[in-house]
Amino acid sequence: MAFKLGLMKFLKHFLQYQGIPAPAMKNAFKAVFILENRCSGQNRLIKRISKVTIHQNFNYNSLKNDIAVAQLESAVDFEPVCLPPTNSRTRGQGTIIGYGNLVNNGQKFPCTLQEANVNVYSWNNCLKTGNYRDIINLPKTVCAGFKAGGIDTCNGDSGGPLLQVNSAGNYYIKGITSFGHGCGLQNNPGVYTDVSKYIPWIRRNAGLARTARETTQKITYTINFLSFLGSIIS
């Protein structure tokens, strides 16, 4: 089944394109699918992006409401990751993936997609870490990593997913990589936009039905998902 997909991406990459004419937007961004090797570009599928909707209350300085929806110009055969229930509980473990930097100091970007399992911390628990001052006014965020450090997202992973598995065994996107202090530092887990806090906004701006049942019944709706690769290229 051909789903028409969109992407959600860390917003700072979009800001420089705000206000440009719609025809120019089509040439500003592209989405990359099935990228087996970032360095060789082997077997990649590229689609143009026709529209980007940035959250109306996004704040570049605080990164509050760090979320956007992008729509592809044409359909692509791809299975989207599930959205979480609205205001779902934050707990357990999750999976982070991306092509971001592998070291805290210096640059070491991988050719192949990286994956790691991390602990997921609610906003209240994250307030007990070194992120307190940065997230005290960002209640729609979660954190992920380890308080001891070592495993984390890094530069180049922005916009990628924090995935969890529901009771049915399906992956859903709990968070979108937003920001952090360094990479893998002790007591500084990465900060992610809590997708479950934005479900009404996502459905409204992505043209989705109000419920999963309605979405199933009306599969002609544009199905939007969150980029697992941070794979928008300019």
UniProtKB/TrEMBL annotation:
GO terms, molecular function: serine-type endopeptidase activity
Protein name, as recorded: Peptidase S1 domain-containing protein
Gene Ontology biological process terms, A to Z: proteolysis
All residue ranges annotated as the Peptidase S1 domain in the record: 1-207
Family that this chain belongs to: Belongs to the peptidase S1 family. CLIP subfamily.
Keyword annotations from UniProtKB, A to Z: Disulfide bond
Gene3D superfamilies: Trypsin-like serine proteases
A Pfam family it matches: Trypsin
Cited PANTHER family: ACROSIN-RELATED (PTHR24252), HYALIN (PTHR24252:SF7)
InterPro entries membership: Peptidase_S1_PA, Peptidase_S1_PA_chymotrypsin, Peptidase_S1A, Trypsin_dom, TRYPSIN_SER
